[in-house]
Write a structure and sequence with these properties.
The chain is α/β, with parallel strands linked by helices. The chain is built from 10 helices and 9 strands. The protein is 45% helix and 15% strand. α3 packs across α4. The N and C termini lie far apart (51 Å).
């Protein structure tokens, strides 16, 4: 009940200026008989802006609980060495649907000072696009956007494997809960070095087997030829259109200055061997 009251009060109090504009146009309509079309247009526009303001302001409050419905238990975050300095967070694995990275963006210390950079492919799906827009601080991944974030004092979070890791053909010997990471991307290390910022590895246990794509061979083939990951199906291990509801645990390692690709994946290997006790496969082929 208190949450509803806070939403309603915010809707009214924080938009006094917008409603004053509404009142001004209403008086102009009454006393000067301005065209009714313009009056209705301004009214709808102001109502839209007011509603959008409340939704975006409180989005983190209701998107995180919705995402948690996919998890077996509330996620756990382990920090090796928390830091307030701006950094480039590299999240792995991408998984088939990376809900873990979207959930993590709404938690402290990422909630206020971190931008999530995503592939342009993801922004083409209207549902994913609006979920990300409601989450806030989402940009298409590019060198220019990364540099803009860092220059303005924000940290950056990316899933380095990206679409290639999503459609990756897993090795035959890999179990469903093993990590299979695509290691072909290298430009981010050059950007971090040129901007003199550290790289912070994040490994999420649970993301790798949250969903399954039964037609991944078709998806992989289509991406290979048209560079677009279609078609695809989200299912659990038994073919039902739901998640596997596995527990999520985030392992956030300490920041690495002048990080190289070798150092990053050595850190992932160490976490897998010493903390998670699962196998990790590094794949460089396209």
């Amino acid at each position: 009940m208190s949450v509803i009251v806070s939403y309603v009060s915010d809707f009214i109090i924080s938009n006094i200026f917008l409603y004053s504009i509404f009142l001004t146009f209403y008086l102009m309509y009454v006393f000067y008989q301005i065209n009714i079309f313009y009056f209705l247009f301004i009214s709808v526009f102001i109502s839209y802006i007011s509603t959008l303001h409340v939704i975006t302001k409180h989005s983190c409050d209701f998107i995180s609980p919705l995402l948690e419905l996919s998890f077996q238990t509330p996620p756990t975050i382990h920090f090796e060495e928390p830091s307030d300095e701006k950094t480039i967070y590299i999240f792995s694995p991408h998984g088939f649907m990376p809900v873990g990275i979207v959930w993590l963006l709404g938690q402290e210390p990422f909630k206020r000072k971190t931008y999530l950079l995503v592939s342009k492919h993801l922004l083409h799906y209207w549902f994913a696009k609006w979920v990300l827009l409601l989450r806030g601080r989402i940009m298409e991944i590019s060198k220019e956007n990364i540099e803009w974030c860092l220059n303005n004092g924000y940290s950056v979070m990316i899933s380095l494997g990206g679409i290639r890791e999503m459609v990756l053909e897993r090795p035959i010997e890999a179990r469903p809960d093993d990590f299979c990471l695509y290691t072909g991307h290298e430009k981010i290390f050059e950007i971090a070095k040129s901007k003199k910022v550290s790289i912070t590895p994040i490994l999420c246990d649970g993301q790798q087997n949250l969903h399954v794509n039964p037609i991944n061979y078709i998806t992989h083939t289509m991406y290979k030829y048209i560079k677009y990951p279609i078609p695809f199906i989200f299912t659990n291990n038994y073919g039902f259109p739901i998640s596997n509801r596995v527990p999520f645990v985030f392992y956030i390692s300490k920041s690495i200055k002048n990080c190289t690709k070798t150092q990053l994946y050595d850190t992932y290997k160490e976490v897998c061997e010493n903390k998670i006790k699962k196998n990790i496969f590094l794949i460089d082929k396209k």
